[in-house]
Design a protein that fits this description.
Elements: H1 2-70, E1 77-81, E2 87-92, H2 94-116, E3 137-142, E4 158-165, E5 170-179, E6 185-201, E7 204-221, E8 228-229, E9 234-235
Helix pairs in contact: 1-2
């Protein structure tokens, strides 16, 4: 009888252990499902916003550095005048445009690559970044953001976020023309940048597209303005 009772007790303990293991596994699955459906989107949305803000700042720094060091605004345009000295036509200088566009793209790539590798010496503004930026972690999200409450937003452990380029950098130089007084216009030259990045968290990742538009030059055209500017600079109907 003792042996039968011992066998039953062992069997009951074994069944209880199996039940506990099953319950633990179910709990873990439910927790991960909750994180994936409820918490993860909050972290990713917050990470996307912060990463876009940081990347836009870094891109602007890269463009400003390249333009300040290598761009002479007069080299951007080719203009022709009539016998009275009035401007007949104005056009982009394609050689200068291609050159500055390629140099800007290369400088942006270098800046973003340095950011991914934790080197922010050229960026100056260290307030934007995590204290662990030398590890490639650009910023950390407080766990409290999931509560959507200002008071609780900074509590809890920090979730590290990294940023990686996942595609080519696209640049395009365009102009905006604005009337200025009588027979004068201001030509604003802007560079449009599109970068594909991946925001990486310990438990997920998201691909994002960063679009930014940065002014690089202003030119005032005085006198009798021609009705047509080449390369879509301006057309008067």
């Amino acid at each position: 009888m003792k042996k039968i009772r011992l066998k039953k007790q062992r069997k009951n303990k074994y069944n209880l252990l199996i039940l506990i293991i099953i319950l633990v596994l179910i709990s873990i699955i439910l927790v991960f499902k909750y994180i994936n459906t409820k918490i993860m989107p909050i972290f990713l949305e917050y990470a996307e916003y912060q990463a876009s803000k940081i990347a836009t700042y870094v891109i602007s720094k890269a463009v400003d550095e390249e333009v300040s060091q290598n761009l002479d605004i007069d080299d951007l345009f080719i203009s022709s005048k009539d016998n009275d000295g009035n401007i007949k036509s104005i056009d982009f200088n394609p050689i200068t445009i291609n050159k500055i566009s390629n140099m800007i793209k290369a400088n942006i790539f270098e800046y973003l690559e340095d950011l991914e590798n934790g080197n922010i010496d050229k960026i100056k503004n260290t307030m934007l970044f995590s204290s662990r930026v030398n590890e490639g972690i650009i910023f950390e999200i407080p766990s409290g953001v999931v509560f959507d409450n200002i008071i609780l937003s900074n509590i809890g452990p920090k979730v590290p976020v990294k940023l990686n380029m996942v595609g080519d950098i696209l640049t395009d130089i365009e102009t905006k023309v604005t009337d200025y007084g009588i027979n004068n216009v201001v030509i604003e030259v802007v560079v449009k940048v599109e970068v594909y990045e991946q925001v990486i968290l310990p438990f997920g990742a998201k691909k994002i597209t960063i679009n930014t538009e940065i002014p690089i030059a202003l030119k005032l055209i005085q006198g009798e303005i021609p009705s047509y500017f080449f390369n879509n600079l301006k057309t008067n109907n």
